[in-house]
């Protein structure tokens, strides 16, 4: 059975995902939805590979039509928009999946338990000069750096919550690595994650989406 896909985004992430789908025998790329586009064919799955702006603009309609995967989790920091997406998911019965799950632990915590999450991100070009840019609550960080907090927001929403998440953002020197360090403090213990990105052939987020597509109907999964 072939799964039809609508895709948003033609950048490094979107291009890599589109190329993989076009070469696949089990997925069919229906449409690459462009900014301002108002009509597209219905598909079994929609993937937003463009970010928070695309999710805000197209997310409610796409989620009403079917399952939606997105790299734009930072859009959900806005409680009003998050409420719209929640209501759409409940009304349609479709799920919203957030990428990427590089931070370990949040999906292992029961909702009845409280926890704290501290995420430190550093990457070149985050600010006009290298050095510390922000150290504080996620909700405040999102007001200043909305495009750099998708992974952190995804972990917060699927874990301890936005108000229990602290962000440290550092602009690394030119040529430095993109690094994410997370401390997830739970009643059961401490889970630490360190991820360092080099210059891979395929964008890491694209690779994560492709991996999820490969495992979508797998009989054996690991989370």
What this model shows, in words?
This protein is of the alpha/beta class and 223 residues long. It contains six helices and ten strands; from the N terminus they run βαββαβαβββααβββα. The strands form two sheets. A five-stranded parallel β-sheet has the order 2-1-3-4-5, with helices on both faces. A five-stranded mixed β-sheet has the order 7-8-6-9-10. The longest helix is centred in the N-terminal third of the chain and has 14 residues, at 52-65. The radius of gyration is 17 Å and the shape is globular. The chain starts with a strand and ends in a 9-residue tail after the last helix.
Q: What is the CATH architecture annotation of the largest domain?
A: 3-Layer(aba) Sandwich
Strand order of the largest sheet: 2-1-3-4-5
Q: How far is it from the N-terminal to the C-terminal residue, by CA?
A: 25 Å
Q: Average pLDDT value?
A: 94
The tally of beta strands, per DSSP, is 10
Can you tell me the CATH superfamily of the largest domain?
NAD(P)-binding Rossmann-like Domain
Largest sheet: 5 strands, parallel
Which blocks of ≥5 consecutive residues have pLDDT under 50? none
Write down the CATH topology of the largest domain.
Rossmann fold
Number of domains: 2
Number of helices: 6
Structural class: alpha/beta
Overall form: globular
Radius of gyration: 17 Å
The percentage of residues in β strands lies in 25-35%
Proportion of helical residues: 25-40%
Q: Which class of the largest domain in CATH terms?
A: Alpha Beta
- The SSE order reads EHEEHEHEEEHHEEEH
